[in-house]
Request: fold
Amino acid sequence: MLSATYRQSSRLDAGAQSIDRQNRLLWRMPPRRLETESIRDAILACGGRLDQAMSGPGYNIWEKNTNYVAVYQPRGELGPDTVRRMVYQFKPRSQQDPTFDVFDCPDSALVVPRRNTSTTALQALNLLNSKFIVQQASLFAARLQAEAGADPAHQADRGFALAFGRAPSTTERAAAAALISSHGTPAFCRALYNANEFVYVP
Reply:
């Protein structure tokens, strides 16, 4: 783990790629997507809502029902009791998380030696349009407006800092400010959630 090879960045080098496109010589760290739990936790953290309390009872995203057979319908509104880390989520064997199932969320009905990692169009669609993401983007936007004021450029700077841990480039700042001005801060927040930089370990 202390070797130079292991500690390499995943940054693309055009010269090295032209020689070894498959990265067989390990000239960079292969990009690795975050696990589904980490993606959800990062989304909550950006909005300042993540409850990091450890241990204790978990939370439930399913509607309560009195049927003699358990039927799991997602709750219409997710309240403050559902903002704990995803490892504390109640997981029925017969139902997957409606938003994060597409990120290879483990199936509770099966035992497998390792998780799959896939890239599908449904992942991007869920990070744009799911009810959970729309709600969290609004909360993230409210945080940016409270902390950075009404200036779109300042909101862009704060959004990049919270989502990516860095400042935007001049081009990125201009594009983000234009997006905020034309479509609103929540749209900018949803764009941040959909960036590869947000869901992949650099």
Notes: The mean pLDDT is 84. The longest strand covers residues 32-33.
